[in-house]
Amino acid sequence: MWQSAATGEMILDNGETFDVVVVGSGAAGAMAALRAADQGLSVLIAEKAHKFGGTSATSGGVMWIPNHQLGGDTGDSREQTLEYLASVTSGPVNPEKLHAYVDTAPEMARYLKGIGVDLTPAAWPDYFPDRPGARADRSVICPTFDGRQLGDDRYFLMREQFNRFKLFNRYAMDLTETFALMMQQKGWRLTVAKMIARYWRDRSTRNVSHRDRRFTQGAALMGAVYKQVFDRGVELRLETKLEDLAVDGAGRVTGIEVSNFGRKYTIGARHGVVLAAGGFEWNQELRDRFYPVPGLTRHSSTPEDANRGEGLIAAEKLGADTEHTGEGWWIPTMTLPMAKASNFHEIHQAAFDVGRPWSVCVNRNGVRFVDEATGYDSFGQAMVDDHLKTGANMPCWLIFDAKFRHKFSAGGFMPAVHTPDDKIPSDWWDHYVFRAGTIDELARKIRLPVAAVTETVRKMNEYAKTGVDPEFGRGGNIYDQFFGDPTVTPNPNLGPIDTAPFYAVPINNGDLGTKGGIRTDARARVIDRGGNPIPGLYAAGNNAGNPFGGCYPGAGATIGPAMTFGFIAANDIVERSGNQRPSG
Ligand SMILES: Cc1cc2nc3c(=O)[nH]c(=O)nc-3n(C[C@H](O)[C@H](O)[C@H](O)COP(=O)(O)OP(=O)(O)OC[C@H]3O[C@@H](n4cnc5c(N)ncnc54)[C@H](O)[C@@H]3O)c2cc1C
Question: For atom 9 of ligand 1, which residue has the closest CA?
């Protein structure tokens, strides 16, 4: 037994020691564990939840890996990447850390591919496509993974992907299928039929579970990585929550203090502890402390209550500094008022809804504030900036007409062609989704200034005719157009809002996690407030500050760095341990 320095409580010394202890089982933690185990170190992952995989398993699973050169020379280069990043990153960015990312991300991706994780580039424009050095081939995905390869117990224990990435909350969709359905591309009905047939033909799985064995998106990536993690003998302990860090007299981190089914005990770490316990998006106190604008935990689209900043709090107690904590990885969200559901079921990511033709977003003054079709993080940042200026954002409103409603999803319900208005729960009307015969009436219902809303809609209808949005340039670049409607001309993101009935839903500034956290250096070491590394302590993923400062350069820009700095942390630990052994 020993006495916790933080609480004075008596803690059981479990007598267990691993070479490396990783806290959190998301992308950053899995990668750190995999790489360290591959180099011959013994590794334990301590995971607070009853399922593993973190937000990462629920995600789209896209990684932004510039200059990846997967499948041959893509024409991208280190120089072109740095040129792009120089033009888009914001805030005080550590150049060494940024360079470490650019140099190591391709190595990390090739390493994964080399050990059997199926990675492939996905066509996706960088989020600032007009900036120098931008490309449309830097995003990388793992298309699918047969979840049952994890073994039946682990197949059930990995977090399922985000509800809205499954058709009818059941049939797993890969990215191609998601886009085909979202845009109702030619042949989408056949795509649906194939997905359903494939699911029901899998009799052996249907006998044991409703869960689709075909893992897609984040579940595919994490499933494929965890296959490698388990093959290397890493121990994963669920329901094991980091409470504090254990330190020796010289200030070196020597392990973690956890709670596990009510027991508190310590687990020793011979060579390093990697904090990969996600961000602080579910901690209202930390949000209020760090963010410049109000925002609620339940607007986050990450799994409810998992990431509460405990890694950050424990590191701060040891004197760790923080960086980039003023922002989340923003994404506009809507919260559906479901009768019986967790936040994870209720939340709808509106990232692509808001840039579709026949719609407009306004603040509570009835005025536009952004190119609505821009990247989701930039949209959120614009909400924050506008709120700081006007006090009339967060939420803002998405207004659309019957043409939009017929064709696109909005507010978490499917297009009217699948889900007509009479199938929407009656208690949602005029509480969550608003409908009226005229724009005036709609503005009155949602209590926005009628004249301002009418004028905004009039202007948008003019822009739809000319195809040019002189205010914000909506539809003026390839990123916007990628998620527009190619059948709408002259601008795929602009269509007149002129067909009754008219609709409105409130849009919150949600998130995919937090952008900032513990300050780390180019080797993923935790840096204290005096600028020195805290010996034995590393952080990666959303538990640490990201390498780009305030910006989201392209699709996969959170998981790319999470995996890369998990990889870097493991490399540094292995190097310092002097204990490198060939992979077993
Ligand atoms: C629906 C959705 C789609 C997304 N799509 C993408 C995408 O395609 N590409 C992209 O780059 N980003 C995407 N994101 C964001 C991305 O998923 C996260 O930023 C990323 O997964 C964070 O990885 P992580 O390893 O830092 O944290 P996580 O994956 O959240 O893992 C952290 C883990 O730590 C555990 N933990 C927390 N506290 C403790 C504690 N005290 N003790 C022990 N364990 C603890 C948590 O339970 C969790 O399992 C998406 C997010 C969502 C919600």
Answer: 556
For residues 41 and 65, the answer to whether their CB atoms sit within 8 Å is no
Q: Is 369 helix (H, G, I), strand (E, B) or coil?
A: coil
Q: How far apart are CA 121 and CA 357, in angstroms?
A: 28
Domains of the chain: 17-159+216-265+515-577 (3.50.50.60), 330-511 (3.90.700.10)
Contact 247, 253 (CB under 8 A): yes
- pTM tops 0.85, yes or no: yes
Report the candidate in 537, 359, 378 with the shortest Cα–Cα distance to residue 457.
359
Ligand 1 neighbourhood includes 27 CB (under 6 angstroms): yes
Q: Tell me if 333 CB under 6 Å of ligand 1.
A: no
What tokens appear for 348 in the block? 């709808």
Specify the 3-state DSSP secondary structure of 146. Answer: strand
Distance from residue 249's CA to the centre of ligand 1 (Å) = 33
Instruction: State how far the Cα of 483 lies from the Cα of 494, in Å rounded to an integer.
Output: 12
For ligand 1, atom 50, name the residue with the nearest CA.
59
Read off φ and ψ for residue 147, nearest 5 degrees.
-55, -25
Contact 238, 157 (CB under 8 A): yes
Respond yes or no on whether the N-terminal peptide bond of residue 395 is cis (omega within 30° of 0).
yes
For 40-99, write each residue's pLDDT tens digit: 999 999 999 999 999 999 999 999 999 999 988 889 999 999 999 999 998 789 999 999
H or E segment at 196? Answer: helix 188-201
